[in-house]
Request: fold
Amino acid sequence: MQIRHLGITDYTASWDAMRTFTAARHITSHTNTDDEIWFTEHPPVFTLGQAGRTEHILDAGDIPLLRTDRGGQVTYHGYGQLLAYVLINLKARRFGVRELVHRLEQAIVDTLAEYALQAERKSGAPGVYLNGAKIASLGLRIRQGYSYHGLALNVDMDLSPFSRINPCGFAQLPITQLRDHHSNATMTDATFRLARQLIHQLDSTH
Reply:
C-alpha cells in the first residue's frame, strides 16, 4: 500500500490523475500493482455524483459545480476537509464494494475513536455521523475491479457552503467537523491517524 500526501490540489486534476492511474492498471493487467491512497485538500467546489439530481443544489453561487463519475449525490469540498482517495484492486483483496464501503467507514469510526468520539453509521445513508450530524462522506467509482474516489472527512473547515445544497441528497442534514468536538485536532494529525486506520482496514483479512 502506497501512501501519497499531495497537499492542496485542483479537484479536476486529481480526478483526471485517478482515472489515468486506474486505466493504466487495467491495461497492463498487473494484479501485483501496488494499491495507493492519496491524501489531499481541494479549493472550494461542489461535486455531483453521476446519478446525482440537480434539485439538491440550492444555490451554488460563486462556488464551481462539477458533475463527476463517482456514486452519490451532491457534496462540498473545501480547505480543511481531508480527502482520502482509495485506489484499490478489489479482486486482489478479495472483497466487494459493500465490504470496501464498510471498511472505509470503519476506518473513520476508529480514527474518531482515537479522539474519544463515538461515531456511527446510518442505514441507507453511507458515511459517518457524530451525534446525528454527518462528519464524513463516501463516494466511489469501480472500474474493471479497481476503485477510485474515496472519502472526505471534515476536519477544520468553513461549513457554511453545505447550507447551499442538500448534502448527499438529504435536506437540512446537519454537518459537523472534527475541530468542533476536539479543539486540538489538526489536518496533519488527522491525516496520520486516518492513514493508519485505512491501512489496518484494507490490509486486514477480517
Observations:
- Helices lie at 11-28, 90-93, 97-113, 187-203.
- The mean pLDDT is 93.
